[in-house]
Amino acid sequence: GQQVMQIPQYQHVQEGEDFTTYCNSSTTLSNIQWYKQRPGGHPVFLIQLVKSGEVKKQKRLTFQFGEAKKNSSLHITATQTTDVGTYFCAGNRVNAGKSTFGDGTTLTVKP
Amino acid sequence: DAGVIQSPRHEVTEMGQEVTLRCKPISGHDYLFWYRQTMMRGLELLIYFNNNVPIDDSGMPEDRFSAKMPNASFSTLKIQPSEPRDSAVYFCASSLAYPTNYGYTFGSGTRLTVV
Fold first, then answer.
1. Looking at chain A, which residue has its C-alpha nearest residue B94?
2. Is A40 on the interface with B (CB under 8 A)?
3. pLDDT at residue A93, rounded to an integer
4. Distance from the CA of B83 to the CA of which of A73, A86, B15, B46 falls in 20 to 30 A?
5. Of B42, B45, B103, which is closest to A45 when you measure between CB atoms?
6. Residues B17 and B79: beta-carbon distance below 8 Å
7. Residue B102 — very low, low, confident or very high, per pLDDT cuts 50/70/90?
8. Do B104 and A43 lie within an 8 Å CB cutoff?
């Protein structure tokens, strides 16, 4: 079945440093979604990427979808303490009833 | 809209007791999902419904777990009898249509502790 792997599992950074998490699928995807879960909270939908090579930005967050539509990345520039949490990718096949979530990357930011 | 509403927020029960978790999806959403989250296993899909009909329950751990969706605005997840290994955070999520096109909206979760 479809598998979605995320690396790294954990990332500790100093405030102001950059952060990147990577998502890799065993199969070609129709789209990929990213979620953020704050400590003690629930996953919150951030963004969806659909096109090959697509790049989207949300303030300090940059999301990229690979040319082959099998991998994706989330990059945070100049991390802040408000960025702490676990970032999940969810890989999707077209018109599928459910997403396949990665295991998440947990980011901690030291002030 | 108030979002996806789950109750209770916290539940502590003794092993062997029946536990019922409740979820009210966003009005108009066609899909409803139950997830379980633990440190060891991450986010696990237990079951999902489309238009109140169970579509995929392959993630339900065993016969002790059951889920129902009697109408478009309410779903339950029942564990009977509960065991300590069922301790986890249980999330309900809903989606407008194919979640792979629109994304999930998660509820705040129910933190279940079985002692």
1. A98
2. no
3. 79
4. A86
5. B103
6. no
7. confident
8. yes
